[in-house]
Amino acid sequence: MASVASSYDAALLDLDGTIYEGGAAIPNALEGLTEAALPMVFITNNASRAPQTVADQLNGLGYDVHADDVMTSAQAAIEMAAEIIEPGSNVFVLGAESFKQLAREAGYNLVDSADDNPAAVFQGLNREMTWKQMSEAALAVSRGARFLVSNLDTTLPSERGFLVGNGSVAAAISTTTGVAPLSAGKPKPPMFIKAAERVGAKNPLAIGDRLDTDIAGGNAAKMDTFMVGTGVSTHMDVIAAPPEHRPTLIGADMTALNRELDQARPAPQAGFTARYDDAEAGVIVLSGGDSEDPRLANPAEAAVAALLTVADVVWNSEVGRAGAVEVAQVRAEGPAAAAALAAWRK
């Protein structure tokens, strides 16, 4: 039986929540990817760091990565800008020094005031940005500057919890000016397409933890997608996801890449069955569970087996095929089902 990894020719990998959380490595990520032995490109919506800086961090965690193996949303934003902003134009960069350097290398003239009439505001996350800088960017946008952002992630995962993301900063400027930004990062497809081109992949697998960026972006790029349950999106988020946010495959962590492909697909798994108890009220019952299946001995893997079983029922229902589904409750019948659901992040 084919494994997940053997079914694809490259892994296009998110970072925060997938490879690491804050500065800490996600358990089993390196081990699973090492065994999978797929060509890797790391795609990040974080525009605050240069590719080499990201590569250095990954190498510190045991990976063997070069700057060319990393694609940031700042790089994608500069490529997008090239289509609408002439080189030599004044631009205001509300972002990290690495973003500013990319803009300089692209031939733009950096200014720090709206009074310099920038043709565009480039915004990427910078943890040191100030209210004054945000206000200057808003002034420039309100005066007609094009508003380009590296990504629209509202949160930034850290070991302490969720921090303010680039999308939240963009929302503040948009609220102030009434101007919606153009976004270069996930869930837009170009980053995925360009990453696949870098390694010559014809059948890549987009891997991440977040449905509305990693999975939606891979889906938009017409690629198969693989969600790991180690980051932002929860088990209940998956069940309720609209079709464009639904992953092709799901695993508890990266070691699932080296398991049977069918064990990662939405379908009855590990002896579980699911049914609607009250479709109108959004109540689903999970039952069964094969005590001989080794996944049930691992709470995270049992939780994913239950998730795949329930997702198959919900997504293939009449309502589920049309869009997002309101699931009020997933109820357990039997001890194995109860144990699996207890491990769900809701």
From TrEMBL:
Gene Ontology CC annotations of this record: cytoplasm
Keywords on record: Hydrolase
Entry-linked InterPro entries: HAD-like_sf, HAD-SF_hydro_IIA, HAD_sf
GO molecular function, one term: phosphatase activity
Iron-sulfur in keyword set: no
Pfam families linked to this entry: Hydrolase_6 (PF13344), Hydrolase_like (PF13242)
SUPFAM superfamilies: HAD-like
Protein name: HAD-IIA family hydrolase
Source organism per UniProt: Corynebacterium amycolatum
